[in-house]
Amino acid sequence: MNDQFLSIAMFAVLGILIFFMFRNSRKRKAQMATLRDQMIPGVEVMTNFGLFGTLITMDNAKNEAEIEISSGVIVKVHSQTIAKIVTEDEVVEGAPRSVEEAMEIANREAAERDGVESGDETSEAATEPEFGEVADTKSASSTEGKKASE
Q1: Which residue of 90, 91, 94, 97 has the smallest Cβ count within 10 Å?
Q2: Per-10-residue mean pLDDT, the chain, length 150
Q3: DSSP result, 30-94
Q4: Which residues 6+ apart lie within 8 Å of 63 measured at CB?
Q5: CA-to-CA distance for 108 and 115, rounded, in angstroms?
Q6: How far apart are CA 57 and CA 41, in angstroms?
């Protein structure tokens, strides 16, 4: 009785796994079909490897697409490498658009944070070690004395 129940349960789990596998396959095919329908010349696209540009031509017979990544610079890629169509909805307002801009924002926030922290602390609190810091004042004062004597 117990073996029979176990084998029925295993077949049921196998059936559920197969059902979800076919369901996900159908969803993926539907997504690809809508993506193919939206791919017309002039739309902004992104490839799987992160290349952004404007779709110039799409040749379904050869599975090739031409993408203009800059003025006059056209790249020919396999059509399946086009991952998605970039829309204005996906652009987050206030998000950095480059690494340099992100670093500038991070440095500005760090400077503001340091300015607030140093303004609130007193001279005694600055010498007190925080949780997790080593409170070795002898080695710190001896290195300062060595530097001063040099």
Answers
A1: 94
A2: 87 95 92 84 88 89 90 90 78 68 86 70 59 64 52
A3: HHHHHHHHH--TT-EEEETTS-EEEEEEEETTTTEEEEEEETTEEEEEEGGGEEEE--GGGSPTT
A4: 78, 79, 80
A5: 11
A6: 6
Distances 124 to 115, 129, 139, 142, 144 between C-alpha atoms, Å? 17, 10, 19, 20, 18
Asked if 43 contacts 54 with a C-beta cutoff of 8 angstroms, the reply is yes
Q: Which of 39, 55, 43, 42 is nearest to 87 (CA)?
A: 43
Closest CA relative to residue 76, chosen from 92, 55, 91: 55
The pTM of the whole model exceeds 0.90: no
Count Cβ atoms below 10 Å from residue 93 Cβ, excluding itself.
Answer: 4
